Amino acid sequence: MFDKLSGRPVLVPPDAEPRLAEPEVADALGITPEQGAALRDGELDMGVSNCKNPYDSPHSTPGKLCHVAPAMCMLCGNAVIFVSQLPQQLLLADHAKRMRLAMPPMAWDAVWGRQMRAMNQVFEECADLIPAARQQITDLGIRLNLPLGMRTEYDR
Questions:
Q1: So what's the pLDDT on residue 150?
Q2: What pLDDT, on a 0 to 100 scale, did the predictor assign at position 76?
Q3: What is the pLDDT of residue 62?
Q4: Best exposed site among 10, 43, 53, 62 by fewest CB in 10 Å?
Q5: What CA–CA distance (Å, rounded) separates 139 from 47?
Q6: Positions in the chain short of pLDDT 50
Q7: Which residues contact 16 (CB under 8 A, 6 or more apart)?
Q8: pLDDT score recorded for residue 89
């Protein structure tokens, strides 16, 4: 179910999300049933994605809470994306595209390039869900939910 996306953010199909605490579903994702329950219940929501283990980030000191979420989530194998988070993912991609117009190419690539490629891989995996996510953005007036520090860092 999840092996196709191993080593990078995992997109959880809508039918698997409520079952994340079931041992076979959790095992397929490479987590414990307790982690699955925490993911399902929103306890590991990092803003634009969820995290299997925010204390074991490749971007932070082991044992310390990840301090780069959601900025680096798309470059982390701990990232878990629910279909319900696709609107935020799309808005983050739109934000990165706007920044491309405001930043020198090399700077944009250093800040956003790898993340954009990772987001595009996730979008390819769920291309059929993108139109509905875009419609949700419009219908519900969804705005990108970035921490203030991330906005000031990336919007220079």
A1: 60
A2: 87
A3: 86
A4: 62
A5: 20
A6: 1-6, 156
A7: 1, 25
A8: 92
Total structural domains within the chain = 1
Show the CA angle centred on residue 32, arms to residues 54 and 35, nearest 5°.
40
Answer yes or no: are the C-beta atoms of 78 and 38 closer than 8 Å. no
Task: Please identify which residue in the block is written with the tokens 């117009």.
Answer: 101
DSSP state, 31?
A: S
Please give the C-alpha separations between residue 61 and each of 10, 57, 79, in angstroms, as whole numbers.
22, 7, 17
Give DSSP secondary structure letters for 44-94.
Answer: TB-SSSEES-TTS-TTS-TTSPPSSTTTTGGG-TTEEEEGGGHHHHHHHHH
This prediction has a pTM of 0.81
Q: What 8-state DSSP symbol labels residue 129?
A: G
Cis peptide before 70 (omega within 30 of 0): yes
What's the domain range around 144?
Answer: 3-154
Residue 132, CA distances (Å) to 46, 49, 77, 87, 127 in order: 22, 18, 26, 9, 10
Beta-ladder partners of 10: 80
